Amino acid sequence: MTTTTPEAVGRSRPAKAPAVFDAAAARKDFPILGTLVRGKPLVYLDNAATTQKPRQVTAALVGYYETSNSNVHRGVHRLSETATRLYEGARAHVAEFIGAAEPAEIIFVRGTTEAINLVCHSWGRPNVAAGDEVIISGLEHHSNIVPWQRLCEEKGARLKVIPMNDRGELLLDEYERLFSDRTRIVAVNHVSNALGTINPVAEMAASAHARGVPLLVDGAQGLPHLGVDVRALGCDFYAFSGHKMYAPMGIGVLFGRKELLSKMPPYQSGGDMIKSVTFDRTIYNDPPHLFEAGTPNVAGAVGLDAAVAYLGGAGQDAIRRHEEEVLEYATGRLGDMEGLRIYGTAREKAGVISFTMEGVHPHDVGTILDTEGVAVRTGHHCAQPIMERFGIPATVRASFGLYNVKADVDALVAALGKVRSVFR
Ligand code: PLP
Fold first, then answer.
1. In what helix (H) or strand (E) does residue 399 lie, and over which residues does it extend?
2. Which of 221, 242, 355, 402 could form a disulfide bond with 247, CB atoms 3.0-4.6 angstroms apart?
3. For this structure, is 235 an active site residue?
4. Rounded distance from Cα 367 to ligand 1 centre (Å)
């Protein structure tokens, strides 16, 4: 067996991304899509929870471990130099991919959750005081609620929430009214994981900045479907998870504007985040290393790099158009089903359809779909306040990735027909 180095695997990006995305061809890159589940071909519609990984990513991981594995930043030997080059190369490629001004604005973390906790800890604690206010939205995942809630509890600050309309769109007039001279930060998601709403984050950042307030974007669902240019969005922080964008689990990114990062104290402490240590005093390293204490997930960064190359090569605009077509088709087909109600009908949507079926608990829907090989998510999707807003305990969520095609939607509709026949 020959092993390819991750450098060779990961970065075969064509000079110009194609205008049209060929999903049928892309499916061949994802071996898991050719497997059977309960004797039926897998129809994977749980991409908002995590995406599958293309061969290009798994080959980069295997290649890394078989040819280049070592610890980074510390060794003078060849393997350590290679691993360091791969790790820092991944940082540079991610920076370029999301339009960061420089690689030092990219901090590798475990995922979106850790990225938000880092900001709450290192930016929030020094900048939020008693009586101050933090604005989030009613559309947030728990990971963009609970860390802010805890910060507010600790500091005696107040959490304010942007409400939404019945379509699941944020009320921007209300957003404007929530600002006061005590507002310290705004934290909103780019795309809602429960309803699929695309939030106008560039507009929201401009409003916040007009008042001198920074804005964090939870991009866990934004980057995989829309791509991102952090400079065009004008956000101060952007958090995302590798595993939701075809990269391995356990690696994610916090983008932070250098101006803010350079004033933030460390998050965790230990090796690599220091320049020198004595028992009297530690001199800290500069960002991004200041925020990456301990041995990082080098293989994860290599895999993320390969996923970035994969998305860049396919062309994120082309992927977006393809996904929009599939989502529109699914919305039409599910919308035609009797007794099925779609939650989240925003004019701007990506990746997700949440729904309930009259007379059937969402978990039962999910269980029966599974017997047909159709994988969806059921429950509150870590967004309980959204469920509360709509007066329901749970939904069924079909969420799409770049490899989903209209035939997957047809399979979902056929399987829902089976649910209906069981619960007639
Ligand atoms: N934010 C959103 C919108 C999400 O969908 C998720 C995961 O589902 C997260 C945050 C948390 O991501 P992770 O579990 O990868 O940290």
1. strand 395-399
2. 242
3. no
4. 23
Q: State which ligand 1 atom lies nearest to the alpha carbon of 241.
A: 15
Yes or no: say if 396 and 356 are a contact pair by the CB < 8 Å rule: yes
* Residue 288 Cα to chain centre, angstroms: 20
Q: 316: Cβ below 6 Å to ligand 1?
A: no
State the distance from the centre of ligand 1 to the C-alpha of 224, rounded, in angstroms.
Answer: 12
Work out the angle at residue 346's Cα, subtended by the Cα atoms of residues 417 and 100, and round it to the nearest 5 degrees: 115
Tell me the whole-structure pTM to 2 decimals: 0.96
Q: What is the mean pLDDT of each run of 10 residues along the chain (424 residues)?
A: 49 67 97 96 98 98 97 91 97 98 98 98 98 98 98 98 98 98 98 98 98 98 96 97 98 98 97 94 96 97 98 95 98 96 97 96 96 96 93 96 98 96 88
β-bridge mates for residue 253, sequence order? 108, 240
Q: Is 218 in the pocket of ligand 1 (CB under 6 A)?
A: yes
Please indicate whether residue 112, judged by its CB atom, sits closer than 6 Å to ligand 1. yes
Please tell me if the CB atom of residue 241 comes closer than 6 angstroms to any atom of ligand 1: yes
Cα first-last separation, the chain = 55
Q: What are the chain's domains? A: 40-47+316-422 (3.90.1150.10), 78-312 (3.40.640.10)
